[in-house]
Amino acid sequence: MTRHAATFTPAGLTRRERRELQRSLTAARQEPAAPRTRRKDRALPEAAVPGPFGPGLLQGGYWNLVRPVLPPHQATSQHIAGIYPFVADSGLGHRGPILGVDLNADALWHFSPWEAYVDSSERGTLSTNILVLGAYRSGKSATVKTLVTRSIAFGHQVVVPSDPKGEWVRVAEAVPGGRVIRLGGGTGARLNPLDRGPRRTGTSDEQHEQMVKQRRIGTLIAVIEMALAGRLTAVEHAAVIDALDRCITRTGDRPTLRGVYDELGEIATDTTAAFHAADGAIQPRFVLRRFVEGDLAGLFEDESTVRFDQDAPIVVTDTSELFARGDLAAQLTQVCSTAWIQAVISDRASHRTRYVVREEGWRDMTSLASLQMFQQWLKLSRHYGISNIVILHKMGDLDAVGDARSLERSLAYSIVGDIENKFIFRINQQEQTPLRERLNLSATHVEMARQLRKGEFLAYVGQYSYLVHCFATSTPWERDLFDTDDAMTTPDDDIADLRTLDARQIEDLWPEPDYPQTDLEGWLSAPASELEREA
């Protein structure tokens, strides 16, 4: 094959530049030409056996000289998105315990609120608190129990300030070293919600005293306002603080509800006190009388008789005996037990990370004082290394907080909406609008939440969402321990109680009459013996 070359010499070149250009052209002409090949060498290899179809028919190596014609794939845009190569999500990584299977990525889903908080990537979150919301029998409790029990192996402690159903008692008793604090039922255990608690690390004496005083005042005001179903007046508020200060002085910084009750009685009888303090002490004293002499006596009015075990992997306060006394008693019990727990675990020097599981979380938010205390603890969770797990059945639970358009209800919805990490389980139809308005969920996710199966939930961690199935990784030990429907099992469901009957027993139970005639008239007419017996 002949090669042709054309050269072009720009004008304005120097003599030296023209010489270098000429050398380059000469070197290019002297390059050896590519070796010539035959058409036979460029063609397909010869067939191993003669024939137009090659060796495929005999040896399995079929090749065809004819180019195949493959039609392009046709599908809708919705279906074609399924073959996009990067549709699987990367997830949260492998830090923390396994909580389930990510159904979108078909991979194990690991979750730890502390690991997500320290994650500096776009997958990180700004809070360690978790909101768990879903209808009955959607798998909320079992999922929370799975998360916290598996987290024990990672060094986290589990604290349940109030167990109204007694279902966490089984978990605490099954975990080696678990501790159960039982209230009521003749146990004699008492918790003092006004305990001083440990000292926060790095604070001065003045700062520590101020923090302890504010916590005690907040607990007292929350209990009294909850029982009154309203807010204290300025005079009543001043009387309560005055009684608390007197009790602290008289008891050597070991105040109790009984001591505050007695001091309120002293103030009420002092008619010479300024600013009508005697009138302001009457109403709060009647409220505290319920703890000293009423249906809640023997639980919270004196000094604590039990101690919080810092080394126990799980600590559960069993309040199931008290929740049968009425809804108000249940709310007061939960506030007092939660205040005691928070007072003893607010110690950064212990370097413990804890889950605080708030069953029936709306009971902690039934008054303005309790709401403010609840909001403060959610904000201080990162400071104390705590992850608050707030469990609600529906957003409508918060309608029991205050009146419509009240400050209390608005604050309750604001607190729940500010919790960044959310686990949304199956919801009822009437919950669609509250989820879109209060939690700002998309319509697609709300519709998906209505169709979730038991144990499946939508997990919102930071700016990302995941579809997780928890029970796909549950062990038989966990399923038996976390099951809360054992009371609904009927005796017929137990296969061990089933027995078979032989033919003779069946004949005794269901005897068949003897009809000698087999025609149609014989089957329709009773035997003569039976007709005579009836006559």
Automatic annotation (TrEMBL):
Domain of life: Bacteria
Region ranges (Disordered): 1-50, 510-535
SUPFAM superfamilies associated with the record: P-loop containing nucleoside triphosphate hydrolases
Gene3D superfamilies listed in its UniProt record: P-loop containing nucleotide triphosphate hydrolases
The name this protein goes by in its record: ATP-binding protein
Organism field: Microbacterium aurum
